[in-house]
């Protein structure tokens, strides 16, 4: 018999759905969803299922293993592999109901040779110099006779609205889209927030769906279990390095949360939990598998009880120095993911 999971991750799928609808409305065009890295740590299958019910029909993963994990999805749903296709992915890829976003002439040759005329997307690089066909001298002949559904590019500086590269990439991309005559897509979450002239025909939000930008609802709520409570007199220290010293007689609770759960050292002496509706701060360093919180001023809590960890992404990012992306994808496998 497996004991109950001592760590929980409550995932508010209604908030997730509301965030996706809000981003789609902001863009005013068809919207997909990035679900790579197991749905940014939430569980890709559950995310896909819920967003499909909301009308989302295009989902982005990084590689064919992630695509295979979504097997059995409805036939009118497209799974797109952002890293494209490598020779090593064949032939397994051909048995997976997903399509590549082709990024290079080599990948086009591979897909022409093995894809049997199947549909694909393509990625064009317009200034980030990450993935895709270069925009300079972009040549549409390479794709003649191929079933290209959408052409993509990705913005390097979308989270800096004033950055000159945004408009430059948009204008370069507009030329590519016009030349190819297929649907264009440029915007991630931050790109959607730049305004409608970045919407083109389709958008690819990710982090915002999961609550990672201002104005979106919190989706993820970690809950840790109290392992032990202890009283200590003023002057005693707590944790590795004895970095925190009690300035008054105090009561502490030790929780089962640590590095493997994405709760990294930056939360030391800064992170917070919610005990009986009151904030309780982390005191001392995060240990590998534990944190210690100060419950002197909170309602009582006992070993075995669960307390919520403050994980509003903007606030947690500010406290820990981690990005919203790291906060989500680092959550780890020890949580029982509970969808509500
Ligand atoms: C991950 C990814 C997205 C989503 O980006 P967010 O910043 O999470 O909204 C969109 N497009 C591409 C190509 C991506 O790799």
TrEMBL record:
Taxonomy, superkingdom: Bacteria
Active site: 36, 240
Pathway the protein contributes to: Amino-acid biosynthesis; D-alanine biosynthesis; D-alanine from L-alanine: step 1/1
Substrates-to-products reaction catalysed: L-alanine = D-alanine
N6-(pyridoxal phosphate)lysine sites (modified residues): 36
Cofactor(s) it depends on: pyridoxal 5'-phosphate
Coiled coil (residue ranges): none
Listed GO CC annotations: cytosol
One protein family per Pfam: Ala_racemase_C
Family annotation (PROSITE patterns): ALANINE_RACEMASE
Listed PANTHER family: ALANINE RACEMASE, ALANINE RACEMASE, CATABOLIC-RELATED
Protein name: Alanine racemase
Organism of origin: Sphingosinicella soli
Lineage: Bacteria, Pseudomonadati, Pseudomonadota, Alphaproteobacteria, Sphingomonadales
């Amino acid at each position: 018999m497996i004991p109950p999971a001592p760590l929980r991750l409550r995932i508010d799928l209604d908030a997730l759905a509301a965030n996706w609808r809000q981003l789609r409305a902001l863009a005013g065009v068809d919207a997909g969803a990035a679900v790579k890295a197991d749905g940014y740590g939430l569980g890709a299958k559950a995310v896909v299922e819920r967003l499909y019910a909301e009308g989302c029909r295009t989902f982005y993963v990084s590689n064919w293993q992630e695509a295979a994990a979504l097997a059995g999805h409805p036939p009118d749903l497209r799974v797109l592999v952002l890293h494209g296709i490598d020779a090593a992915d064949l032939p397994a890829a051909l048995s997976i109901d997903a399509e590549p976003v082709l990024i290079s002439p080599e990948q086009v040759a591979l897909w022409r040779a093995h894809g049997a005329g199947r549909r694909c997307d393509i990625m064009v690089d317009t200034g980030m110099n990450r993935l895709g066909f270069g925009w300079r001298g972009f040549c549409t002949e390479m794709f003649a006779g191929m079933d290209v559904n959408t052409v993509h590019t990705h913005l390097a500086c979308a989270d800096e609205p004033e950055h000159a590269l945004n408009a430059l990439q948009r204008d370069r991309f507009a030329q590519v889209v016009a030349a190819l005559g297929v649907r264009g897509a440029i915007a991630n979450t931050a790109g959607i927030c730049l305004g409608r002239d970045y919407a083109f025909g389709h958008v690819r939000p990710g982090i915002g769906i999961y609550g990672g930008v201002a104005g979106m609802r919190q989706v993820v709520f970690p809950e840790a279990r109290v392992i032990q409570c202890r009283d200590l007199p003023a002057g005693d220290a707590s944790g590795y390095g004895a970095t925190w010293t009690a300035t008054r007689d105090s009561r502490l609770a030790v929780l089962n949360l640590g590095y493997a759960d994405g709760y990294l050292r930056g939360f030391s002496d800064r992170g917070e939990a919610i005990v009986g509706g009151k904030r309780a701060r982390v005191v001392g360093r995060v240990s590998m598998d534990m944190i210690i919180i100060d419950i002197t001023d909170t309602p009582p809590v006992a070993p075995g009880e669960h307390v919520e960890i403050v994980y509003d992404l903007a606030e947690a990012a500010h406290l820990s120095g981690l990005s919203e992306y790291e906060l989500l994808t680092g959550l780890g496998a020890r949580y029982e993911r509970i969808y509500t």
